[in-house]
Design goal:
By secondary structure, this protein is an all-alpha fold. It has a single domain, classed as MetI-like fold (Orthogonal Bundle). The chain is globular.
Length: 290
Amino acid sequence: MQKREAITGYLFASPWLIGLFVFTLYPLLSSLVYSFTNYSMGKDFDFIGWTNFKIMFTSDHGFFQSIWNSVWYTLVSTPLNLICGFGVGLLMNSKVKGIKVFRCIYYLPCVISVVATTMVWSWMFQTKYGLLNQLLAYIGVQGPAWLTDPAWSKTALVIMGLWNCGGGMMMYLAGLKGISSTYYEAAEIDGANAWWKFWKITLPMISPLLFYNLLTGFIGGIQVFTNAFLLTGAGTDNSTNFYVYNMYTMAMNNRRMGYACAMGWILLIVTMSLSLLIWRKVGSRVYYES
């Protein structure tokens, strides 16, 4: 009976197990092997040792520029998305008439197709007739060339990223709903004003969600790809040639799959290292009620 139950269990779990080995573990180990070769799709390849990594850090100038672009985007977009999502979550926690409609409106961008969203934003960022530059013209400001000016292209993608702050908003809203009203009542009895209730009750109680969104936002920022791929490409003067986009270009356009695999492992190591650093430095400041 135990063997029969075990076999039945493995049969039910087999689709997931097959997917894990075929689509996750095998590609992961293969990319590690290919990173030490000059592998190009459809051609024979040779083992070249650490050559890909040496080229990456010594003679590939686009490599360092892509790192800078990704770091800039991450350092700007992550805190802005945290602040925007948390602020909207506080507003959506208000007890006003029609608040459910506003919650749906703010969350709606998260379920819209990325391609459709990109098409809308490409029109909004249009230099001559785009909505943003038209609004700026009304107040006497000449709008920039958002998508073609190297000084503004990354900023345009950051603004576009704020469009999806509704996902974080829903998480913060759930966390705010879970804070017991007895804390606020006790604080009012002690004479605490709205600021102190926010600083001493709301912020500590919501800190696990803030930390989670900080960590996932950092990882997502480092791996930004879709917005640039659909909207700007590498951008003028490679201003939006982010790390993952550069890796994609090396693999798919230049057919340097071995080099792209080496870039992928550098990305994995850096992301894991910085995530652990954030976990140790920021995670220790998170308040857990239990």
